Amino acid sequence: MSIDSFSITIPGGPRILCGRITARGDAAEPRRGFLVVPGFWGDWRRPGYAGLMKALSEHGTVLAANLRGHGGCSGWFSFGRNEPGDMGPLYDHLLDQGVRRITSLGFSLGGWALAEHLSASADHRSITGHLLLAGVPSRMPWVLPRPWIPGLWTQLRKGGRGWVRPDPLSLLPGRDLRPAVEKLGDLPVTVLHCERDWMVHHRHGERLYGRVRGPKRWVLIPDRRGLHVEMVCLCHGDKVLEAALHPPRRRG
């Protein structure tokens, strides 16, 4: 199964590299869609995300997008400052494909961008049936709990394998995602984390989960290797798929 690769140009912004799989399989629902957004240093073309996309396509149309400044994209990565503004055109593209009910999967800072966007867009929030936040930080810059120095700065120093263009100045001033999570209202939210995540400690996930006002589920994947999101998709893709396909139920 191949993934169609194409670009979406954000009005007044960067060019975003996307991948799409049209709904396939007997269980697929033509009007159901999935939006997959990897985070910092992430790329949907890697095996963990690509495998998840193919599994999701058995249930609906799948759209994945790299964040600005990453492989195949233009612009500079701004650690959640500007990325939320790029999510709207991704939603619009799924709508153009005939999708009317969307499950959004945000990984690390991809989840930050989705949560911020959905907290501000009532229209897109109304067509979102489920938001999965996997390995998402509750604050930027990370202070406590760790890590910050052994994670992000190591990657910045190595230059993101030569293709991530980060803007460290965008880290100032600090930001907190929890107010945006509170504004999601009754949107069903699953917060997923790997135990001892080396990049974003699972206590960040606990803090976000505590602020969700609507139906919610907390999923902690036991794995003492401390995997971050891409490796979670690769090693525990079945658990991520299960969490995405079964949103917490609304009360009543």
CATH class category label: Alpha Beta
Distance between the termini: 40 Å
Shape: globular
Query: How much helical structure, as a percent, in the residues?
Result: 25-40%
Percent strand: 15-25%
Q: Secondary-structure element sequence?
A: EEEHEHEHHEEHEHEHEHH
Low-confidence stretches at least 5 residues in length (pLDDT < 50)?
144-149
Number of strands: 10
Structural Rg: 16 Å
**Average pLDDT taken over every residue:** 90
CATH architecture heading: 3-Layer(aba) Sandwich
> Structural class, please?
alpha/beta
Biggest β-sheet: strands ordered side by side in the sheet: 1-2-4-3-5-6-9-10
Major beta-sheet overview: 8 strands, mixed
CATH topology: Rossmann fold
Give me the number of helical elements.
Answer: 9
Number of domains: 1
CATH superfamily grouping? Alpha/Beta hydrolase fold, catalytic domain
Topology:
Elements: E1 4-9, E2 15-21, E3 32-37, H1 47-56, E4 61-65, H2 87-96, E5 101-107, H3 109-120, H4 122-126, E6 128-134, E7 139-140, H5 149-157, E8 175-176, H6 178-182, E9 189-194, H7 202-211, E10 216-221, H8 229-235, H9 237-245
Helix pairs in contact: 1-8, 1-9, 8-9
Explain this structure:
The protein has a single domain (4-245), classed as Rossmann fold. 31% of the residues lie in helices and 21% in strands. The protein has helices at 47-56, 87-96, 109-120, 122-126, 149-157, 178-182, 202-211, 229-235, 237-245; strands at residues 4-9, 15-21, 32-37, 61-65, 101-107, 128-134, 139-140, 175-176, 189-194, 216-221. The strands form two sheets. The protein has an eight-stranded mixed β-sheet, sandwiched between helices. A two-stranded antiparallel sheet has the order 7-8. Strand 3 (32-37), helix 1 and strand 4 form a beta-alpha-beta unit. The longest helix is centred in the middle third of the chain and has 12 residues, at 109-120. The radius of gyration is 16 Å and the shape is globular.
